């Protein structure tokens, strides 16, 4: 755990969140500022600041997070149409430096993303 990390604090229960799923590896909770009717953040318990910081040893973990994110999208009722987004770095829109997969669904998405 990184003591300065917001998502580590959410994972530890030190900051409240609307959790939709958790297991020994992955935690998922609703985004506090939703950009679609379904907007869930799926995070590994392990603190990895950006996806580019992951090592080869983390590859199975990231696969598990992505798999779980898709299952959560299905459970949320948006399994046939959703977007899975990982922002890497401030210029790409990353504001919390703990790897997270956004699951956005329930509205039509534009392309390319802004
Ligand atoms: P990103 O900008 O890709 O790093 O995404 C970070 C996301 O975390 C944003 O969509 C924020 O709305 C969301 N967020 C920030 N603080 C909280 C919080 N306390 N609980 C849930 N989501 C949060």
What does this structure look like?
The chain has 114 residues and is of the alpha+beta class. The chain has a single domain (6-105), classed as HIT-like (HIT family, subunit A, 2-Layer Sandwich). The chain has helices spanning 6-12, 59-75; strands at residues 19-22, 26-30, 38-44, 82-85, 101-105. Strands 1-2-3-5-4 form a five-stranded antiparallel sheet, with helices on one face. The mean pLDDT is 97. The site of adenosine monophosphate has 13 residues, from loops.
Describe the structure concisely.
With 114 residues, this protein is an alpha+beta fold. It has 2 helices and 5 strands, in the order H-E-E-E-H-E-E.
Number of strands: 5
Bound molecules: adenosine monophosphate
- As for the number of domains, it is 1
Tell me the number of helical segments per DSSP (H or I, 4 or more residues long): 2
Q: Identify low-pLDDT runs.
A: none
- At the third CATH level, what is the topology name? HIT family, subunit A
- Highest CATH level, the class: Alpha Beta
Overall geometric form: globular
Element layout with pairings:
Blueprint: H1 6-12, E1 19-22, E2 26-30, E3 38-44, H2 59-75, E4 82-85, E5 101-105
Antiparallel strand pairs: 1-2, 2-3, 3-5, 4-5
Bound molecules: adenosine monophosphate (AMP).
Tags for this entry?
binds adenosine monophosphate, alpha+beta, HIT family, subunit A, globular, 5 strands, 114 residues
């Amino acid at each position: 755990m990184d003591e300065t990390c917001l998502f580590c604090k959410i994972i530890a229960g030190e900051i409240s969140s609307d959790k939709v799923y958790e297991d020994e590896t992955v935690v998922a909770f609703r985004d506090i500022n939703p950009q679609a009717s379904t907007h869930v953040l799926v995070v590994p318990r392990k603190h990895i600041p950006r996806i580019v910081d992951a090592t080869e040893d983390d590859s199975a973990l990231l696969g598990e997070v992505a798999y779980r994110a898709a299952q959560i999208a299905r459970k949320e009722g948006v399994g046939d149409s959703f977007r899975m987004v990982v922002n890497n770095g401030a210029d790409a829109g990353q504001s919390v430096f703990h790897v997270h997969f956004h699951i956005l669904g329930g509205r039509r998405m534009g392309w390319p993303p802004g």
